[in-house]
Amino acid sequence: MSMFLFNLLLALTWAMATGQFTVPNLVFGFGLGYLLLRSVQRIVGPSPYFAKVPLALRFALLYVWELILANIRLAYDVLVPGAWSRTGAVRMTPIAPHSHPAVSGWRTGPPSNGSVRAPLASPSYITPGVIAIPLDVRTDAEITLLANLITLTPGSVSLDLSADRRTLYVHAMYIDGGDVEAYRRSVKEGLERRVLELLR
Amino acid sequence: MREQASAVLLVLGAFFMLLAGVGVARLPDLFMRLQAATKASTLGVGCMLMAVAIHFQDLAVTTRAVLVIAFFCLTAPVGAHLIARAAYAAGVPLWEGTITDEMRLSSRDAQDRSGENSSSAGNERGDGS
């Protein structure tokens, strides 16, 4: 942390020395400061900061990329008519149409007669569910960051944390092929692993 | 170049905002509507603010744009999380196509166990999960 402040100070110094308080110049100064601090590591002492800056950058870029991909998927499902009524394909038990008081009336297709429809090949269909994710992250900061990142990703909202702080309940829209285990794994090995890398 | 970049970002931002609205109207249950309303609009706001920053190319405007994006990314998920949690606690039904609800399963588990505990002096605590 102190290393980060030092780096900010160097960026400010650079901006003052060049007399240009513009964003690109400040960013450039930050990069220069980082390189400088890194090269004098032996004097200022080792710090996890040096390894974390590239990690954080890579993580931010990756996350933004995934954010855009997930948004495009959501956009497809929202905009293409009928793209997601195909979820009937993965329904396990037939449910009578309009049996749900809160959601009757949204269905635009022909009323189904309660039979399970055959799976259709579709690039994307919605298979929502509430999933319990066992947590390896422990501290408040780690749990908060993970829960917020999950909520920011389109397609998943963190619903609740269990009382013993070991399980995070997530509402996910895209459980591909109904494979709950695979979804759990993708969160644990994707977001959670990166959060741990970054904060520990 | 600057003009084009900010124009593209503005249109993209407006598109995502529209998407959020259409999503709220079309998606089947509260939890999914929340997804559209939060995420798409966050990206929309982000795109628009970036367009503003690129258009003005001024430190004061850029820092404020960055700040607004940062605060939006901090507050939007917390709000969504709270709404979803409150909705779930209030018993808002999930869409009928929902394939699993492990939260209800686990809470029912706990209820079963506490029921057993109260009836049979709590000796079967360990074999729950």
The share of residues in helices of chain A is 40-55%
- Major β-sheet annotation of chain B: none
Mean pLDDT of chain B: 79
Annotated CATH topology of chain B = Helix Hairpins
Query: How would you describe the shape of chain A?
Result: elongated
What fraction strand of chain A? 5-15%
Shape of chain B: elongated
As a whole number of angstroms, the C-alpha radius of gyration of chain B is 22 Å
Order of strands, main sheet of chain A, comes to: 1-3-2
What percentage of the residues of chain B does DSSP assign to strands (E)?
A: under 5%
Order of helices and strands of chain A: HHHHEHEEH
Major beta-sheet overview of chain A: 3 strands, antiparallel
Compute the CA-based radius of gyration of chain A: 23 Å
Structural category of chain B: mainly alpha
Structure characterization notes:
The complex is a heterodimer of chains A (200) and B (129). Chain A is mainly alpha-helical. Chain A is built from six helices and three strands. Chain A has a three-stranded antiparallel beta sheet with strand order 1-3-2, covered by helices on one side. In chain A, a hairpin with a 5-residue loop joins strand 2 and strand 3. Chain A is elongated, with a radius of gyration of 23 Å. Chain B is an all-alpha fold and 129 residues long. Chain B has a single domain, classed as Helix Hairpins (Orthogonal Bundle). Chain B has helices at residues 2-26, 30-56, 59-89, 102-119, and one strand at residues 100-101. The longest helix of chain B is centred in the middle third of the chain and has 31 residues, at 59-89. Chain B starts with a helix and ends in a 10-residue tail after the last helix. The model of chain B is unreliable at 117-129 (pLDDT under 50). At the A-B interface, helix 4, strand 1, helix 5, strand 2 and strand 3 of A face helix 1, helix 2, helix 3, strand 1 and helix 4 of B. Strand 1 (129-134) of chain A pairs parallel with strand 1 of chain B, so a sheet runs across the interface.
